[in-house]
Amino acid sequence: MPLSSESIPARDIRDRLIIGLDLPSVEEARAVVKRIGDAGTFYKIGYQLGYAGGLSFAEELIAEGKKIFLDLKLHDIGNTVEEGVRSVARLGATFLTVHAYPQTMRAAVAGKAGSKLKILAVTVLTSYDDKDLVEAGYAPVPAAELVAKRAAQARDIGIDGIVCAATEAASVRAIVGPERFIVTPGIRPAGSEAGDQKRVVTPGDAIRNGATHLVVARPIVKAADPRAAAEAIVNEIASVQS
Ligand SMILES: O=c1ccn([C@@H]2O[C@H](COP(=O)(O)O)[C@@H](O)[C@H]2O)c(=O)[nH]1
Question: Which InterPro entries does UniProt cross-reference here (predicted)?
Fold first, then answer.
């Protein structure tokens, strides 16, 4: 049944939408979170806000009962990743990203041991297509093939979830099995601008393809009415969710 502001959807449906707080200051992020109100239950903090006080703001949101995805995309020598993840685990976030390189993923799994933090492996950024991979120095390989290889490595290492484009969500599900999270940025409601995203999918198709969580930033936080934009996506998720 379609949902409206009057009948806020069950919490688990709203949790499938992760709203990217890609904003320049904590003040602006706090204002957007306030406008979205109870339509938003899960927020992502990445480079822009993270380097502008966003980690303390993450703790504030957690204390208010919101879930937090720290999209820090860690990638460094193993010891640095392991200790960095150990520090992040103390913040109480739900998800943390690392790049899907085997050394990095193994270090992240070691660093989160004993905590509730879930590690997501970023396979191939959704702003990349096959040509971008060649430009970055990879032998010609379709992005989908590299996503599949990295998803299999992430599974074998014990990573909790995969970040990929929703174009690859169905094939990733076949690789990683039924339990792991499949978190898909590059989501664009029909008619909205792709911007720098190249592997783009609508919210409904992403859910149909098997994504567990959709990441949406600009189409919500830059919207004239961020709450209405978030609700429209939650409604689309609810209309196709099995
Ligand atoms: O492959 C990836 C991994 C992460 N992201 C992040 O998701 C959001 C998407 O923002 P939009 O404004 O909805 O395009 C952004 O914070 C990225 O850093 C991604 O897009 N692709």
Answer: Aldolase_TIM, OMPdecase, OMPdecase_AS, OMPdecase_bac, OMPdeCOase_dom, RibuloseP-bd_barrel
Q: Which residue ranges have their beta carbon within 6 Å of ligand 1?
A: 20, 22, 46, 71, 122, 125-126, 163, 185-186, 195, 197, 215-219
Q: CA-to-CA distance for 182 and 162, rounded, in angstroms?
A: 5
Domain region containing 121: 5-239
Q: What one-character DSSP code corresponds to residue 233?
A: H
- Is 73 one of the catalytic residues? yes
Q: List the binding residues for substrate.
A: 22, 44, 71-80, 126, 188, 197, 218
Q: Is the ipTM of this complex over 0.95?
A: yes
CA 186 to ligand 1 centroid distance, Å: 6
Q: Is the dihedral of CA 219, 224, 226, 230 positive or negative?
A: negative
Residues, the chain? 242
CA 203 to chain centre: 13
pLDDT digits (tens, 9 = 90+) for 98-117: 999 999 999 999 999 999 99
Residues 58, 90 contacting (CB under 8 angstroms): no
State pTM to two decimals.
0.95
pLDDT in tens, 212-231: 999 999 999 999 999 999 99
**Count of domains observed in the chain:** 1
Residue 57's domain is classified under what CATH number? 3.20.20.70
On the question of pLDDT at 3 being above 50, the answer is no
List the catalytic residue out of 66, 67, 73, 116. 73
